[in-house]
Amino acid sequence: MMAFGLIALIAGAASALMFASIVSGALISLVLVCLAPLPLMLAAIAWGPLCGAIGGLAAMLVIGGALSMPLALGYGLAIALPAWWLGHLAMLGRSVTGGTTVADAAAVEVEWYPLGRILLWIAALATLLTAGSLLSLGTDASAIGDAMRRGFARIFSLVGDTTVTESDPRVSLMVAVTPVLVAASQMTTLTLNLWLAAKVAAVSGKLHRPWPDLSSTSLPPMTLVALCVALAFSFSGGMAGILGVIVTTVLMVAYALIGLAVLHTITRDLANRGFWLAAAYAIIFMFSVSLVLLTALGLADAVFGFRERYLRSRQPPPLPTP
């Protein structure tokens, strides 16, 4: 029990230090803040959700004492709570009885929480975090837009040699793309942290479940309907339009991740598969337009079932009946 508490405190202290590094102003602190959920996720996955919860509370107390209580509350809502919940979902499972005969009744298997639903939870958390960060600037769309215009005009004025007004086209462009960039970064950061935490737990022998087949990840069918509804709302004005843009962005990122799963599936039989996957990832990181193609691949798989057809075509023909 003492070791359990010590692990929780270490995870909380590490997460708090990573989060508090932002006050240093160093560029590396941005990376550390993005990775702040990682220790808590690792604790929740390897030692249970209670360990992650204790670590999160300890981190909040450290941040509240060293910096301020409002900042500690923000840390708890934006980092500790999502890290604890995703770590809990990653290890959530239920026992199912395998076999249909009496002899097989003792065979008990564990059905783990579907990866596609975890991805939807990540999208929901990314939506809430993005909306919360924007609502901190104002209570309606006009107030949020004005606050962002003033902020970006001040930033461009500091960077350049001339004073930039709020009507500058660059300012208007940043105001338009900021909800998209924040939502996409939240979605990517949460997904990356969860994958890293699970990978560290697996390497250290603390992942108390089989490593999931990531290439089989699929979203529930109604996700496509939600994406269409959010896309329609994104063309409206006001807060409904902003929320529509945020939800559309996070679901697009989710389908881009499904596109990666499709890519891993259809390249299984290729010679030098590692080389081709490495080349594909290099293209994705170098050219942002490839993310659009990846999202289109994920959407096409949701509609036409590419992976299912590919795997079915690779199955051996049925044996002839006597």
From the structure above, extract its key features.
membrane; 322 residues; transmembrane; 3% strand; mainly alpha; two-stranded antiparallel sheet; transmembrane helix
Description:
The chain has 322 residues and is mostly helical. The chain has a domain of 92 residues. It is 72% helix and 3% strand. A two-stranded antiparallel ribbon has the order 1-2. The protein is globular.
What's the arrangement of secondary structure elements?
Layout: H1 2-20, H2 28-34, H3 37-47, H4 49-66, H5 69-90, E1 93-97, E2 108-112, H6 115-135, H7 141-159, H8 169-203, H9 222-233, H10 238-266, H11 273-286, H12 289-304, H13 306-313
Antiparallel strand pairs: 1-2
Helix pairs in contact: 1-3, 1-4, 3-4, 3-5, 3-8, 4-5, 5-6, 5-8, 6-8, 6-10, 7-8, 8-10, 9-10, 10-12
Keywords: Membrane, Transmembrane, Transmembrane helix
Transmembrane segments: 59-85, 118-139, 173-198, 218-235, 242-263, 275-304
InterPro entries: DUF2232
